[in-house]
Amino acid sequence: MKKIRFGLATQIFVGLILGILVGVIWFNDPRVATYLQPLGDLFLRLIKMIVIPIVISTLIVGVAGTGNGKAFGRLGAKTIIYFEVITTVAIILGIILANVFHPGSHVNLGSVEKTDIQSYVDTSESQQDKSIAETFLHIVPTNFFQSIAEGDMLAIIFFSVLFGLGVAAIGERGKPVIQFFDAVSHAMFHVVNMVMKVAPLGVFALIGVTVSKFGIDSLISLGKLVGLVYAALIFFLIVVLGLVAKWAGVNIFTLLKYLKDELLLAFSTSSSETVLPRVMEKLEKMGCPKAIVSFVVPIGYTFNLDGSVLYQAIAALFLAQVYGIDLSIMQQITLILVLMVTSKGMAAVPGTSFVVLLATLGTIGVPAEGLAFIAGVDRIMDMARTVVNLTGNTLAAIVMSKSEGQYDADHGNEVMKAG
Hints:
Shape: globular
Structural class: mainly alpha
Number of domains: 1
Number of helices: 21
CATH architecture: Orthogonal Bundle
Mean pLDDT: 84
Number of strands: 0
Strand content: under 5%
Helix content: over 70%
Largest sheet: none
Radius of gyration: 22 Å
Low-confidence stretches: none
CATH superfamily: Sodium:dicarboxylate symporter
């Protein structure tokens, strides 16, 4: 008799459904958070534990193996330009859709439960005090080990790239260093496979706590906003990213199917970090060079948040409509420019989407207090925008590999179809 095997995606889906059931049955019961939150936090901590060693080791091996500082500088410039173009398209799309569908019209905030957002306010104020020069200076770490402890990804990437170039520059003497970090990266990928075995439990716990907390009432009250955000994200994923994928020789639906395990896990946990190691591994199997994957994907986690900026544009106009504030064309152009800057400058802080919105709303005259009303359903929208962020960064690595003439689309498609 043939054994029935349940793959990771099936196990995660079962965990997701069971978590929703627990949240609905024990809605607003504090015991759900008491018992399940530690389990969810444990899974997230396991993931965070392995992400930084993988980024450092793969980036050093990739850069040292390339050994060409000029080529790497060109890749960096192209990557940043690509990120800026795609995120700008996402912001403009969000503003157009919010203007067409008016999700904030006829919404009564009095019927929506208010959520405390003071921690986001404090973070926003501390970040706004930083000048542009300070933001760029922050990328250069004064203490690399402190950056590792704080999980400061941009500073970690900066040091790892420089170190990799240094290893490449010393030639034969650098080979033992490359071998060491190559062994570290392979060992860490085995650790990832071990951690992924508890992913369904982590998803079950995190979803159970979320559904138990927010309930159905607030979702119905803000249903128009949630519905538009989901529709906008699906449109961006299929149409905008679909066109980019077509240029790269990839079918967007084939790519989504290839990444189904990672996308379902990212959706369930609202965290792209949980799948970063597996996504990097899958991209390398497709034929994308290690040097490009290890650089583009981690930096995209802070500079290429397509789903997040699309949501931020819609949410800003939603609140303006709720408060009856009619924004002029110039104010909306200001909103685009501000989002372009703040979404990059605050990328490394916790609760980025809310912090960026807080920093943005004041520039167009919208009361920031309105965010307290949509905070209750933010997790539901965060799940979908995480999927778009993840897909956008995966596609970016393929695009950059092709632009460097180092990607074979036929081989990549064969790998994706094989699963």
